[in-house]
């Protein structure tokens, strides 16, 4: 059992002893009942203000705050769990803000690009086929372009267009796909040229994931694991970095022309 699950169990037991309902806990913390249920199950992270409000309602003194401070809420999630967790967050997210410095983001890749990306590391044809199909299925919710489609805002370093995968034809088709995405109402794509030395880039690729609860997560990857951060101070810091980067990047119109120029070089 994880520390988050133990914390959730303590809340549940305290609530039941006090004769309170999940609805009552939600009301005082400005959450719906389902979110309280997820916190009690160890699936969501409460913030300090909610914990303090519950202490008073449940009459548990400072016990809840003391326990909350002891829990490591922000550990990295390692393989094999991290990919499934990220995929689930993509299915629930209201918005994604992505910075990529090397490759085109997965939610914006063509089938041929995905194939070229994974062919060197997946020797089995069946594994490669499953990986490509899974990557493309994750895009469906974003490509629907309906009123419920989440926002996908991406700031791409010029390197993402210059790093050749699969050959010039694959890259030309990938650029054409990006241009098609710029026509969708829920996509915002901006390019950061390499010759702009004044732009302050994040130290690594990252994704800011906005969830229906109103909370944001920072997601990043290292060689063999994914990292999910919900520390409010860190989220605020990286969100500011991303916002400044987007302001310093080319406009959406300029970016589309930049992508078009690179596409023509591959043709």
Question: Care to describe what's here?
Answer:
With 267 residues, the chain is α/β, with parallel strands linked by helices. Helix 4 (48-58) runs antiparallel to helix 5. The protein folds into two domains: 3-70, lambda repressor-like DNA-binding domains (434 Repressor (Amino-terminal Domain), Orthogonal Bundle), CATH 1.10.260.40; 77-266, 2-Layer Sandwich (Endonuclease, Chain A), CATH 3.30.870. The chain has helices at 3-18, 22-29, 33-40, 48-58, 63-70, 81-92, 111-118, 125-143, 159-162, 168-181, 232-248, 252-266; strands at 77-78, 95-100, 151-157, 187-192, 206-210, 216-221, 225-229. Strands 1-7-6-5-2-3-4 form a seven-stranded mixed sheet, sandwiched between helices. It is built from twelve helices and seven strands. The model is unreliable at 76-80 (pLDDT under 50).
Question: What gap, in angstroms, lies between the N and C termini?
Answer: 55 Å
What is the CATH class of the largest domain?
A: Alpha Beta
Beta strand %: 5-15%
* Sheet having the most strands: 7 strands, mixed
- What is the count of helical runs? 12
CATH topology name of the largest domain: Endonuclease, Chain A
How much is the radius of gyration in Å?
Answer: 21 Å
């Amino acid at each position: 059992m994880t520390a988050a699950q133990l914390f959730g169990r303590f809340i549940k037991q305290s609530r039941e002893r006090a004769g309170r309902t999940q609805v009552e806990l939600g009301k005082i913390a400005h959450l719906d009942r389902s979110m309280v249920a997820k916190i009690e199950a160890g699936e969501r992270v409460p913030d300090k203000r909610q914990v303090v409000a519950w202490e008073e309602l449940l009459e548990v003194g400072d016990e809840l705050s003391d326990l909350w401070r002891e829990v490591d809420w922000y550990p990295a999630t390692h393989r094999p769990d991290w990919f499934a967790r990220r995929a689930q967050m993509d299915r629930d997210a209201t918005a994604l803000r992505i910075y990529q410095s090397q490759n085109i983001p997965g939610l914006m890749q063509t089938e041929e690009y995905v194939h070229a990306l994974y062919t060197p590391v997946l020797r089995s044809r069946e594994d490669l086929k499953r990986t490509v199909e899974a990557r493309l299925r994750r895009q469906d919710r974003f490509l629907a372009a309906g009123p419920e489609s989440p926002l996908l805002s991406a700031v791409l370093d010029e390197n993402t267009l210059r790093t050749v995968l699969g050959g010039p034809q694959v890259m030309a088709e990938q650029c054409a796909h990006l241009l098609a995405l710029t026509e969708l109402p829920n996509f915002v794509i901006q390019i950061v040229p390499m010759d702009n030395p004044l732009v302050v880039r994040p130290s690594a690729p990252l994704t800011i994931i906005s969830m229906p609860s109103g909370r944001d997560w920072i997601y990043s990857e290292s060689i063999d694991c994914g990292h999910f951060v919900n520390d409010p101070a860190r989220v605020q810091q990286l969100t500011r970095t991303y916002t400044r980067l987007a302001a310093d990047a080319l406009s959406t119109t300029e970016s589309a022309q930049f992508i078009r120029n690179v596409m023509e070089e591959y043709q």
